[in-house]
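User: Hey, my collaborator sent me this sequence without any context and asked if I could get a structure. I don't really work with proteins. Can you help?
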Amino acid sequence: MTIERALRGIAGVVVGTGTVLAALHSPWWLILTGFAALNLAQSALTDWCPMVWILQKAGLRRCAAGESKAPA
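Assistant: No problem. I've predicted the 3D structure and written it out in structure-token form, which is a compact way to encode the shape of the chain:
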């Protein structure tokens, strides 16, 4: 698994968890979803994300340029 795939998965889990908890428990959980959205926007604008650093320390590798497993 590459850093990029792990990062998308983590963001999806955080957004999904915040949404489900907001629906089932309290609307205050939408703060978690909002935090994820702000972090994604900040990462897109600055090309820096703290989770990338954590995933690198965990031993994941970045995907190579042009590497894709999408079907043709």
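In plain terms: Helices lie at 3-24, 30-46, 50-57. You can pass these tokens on to your collaborator as they are.
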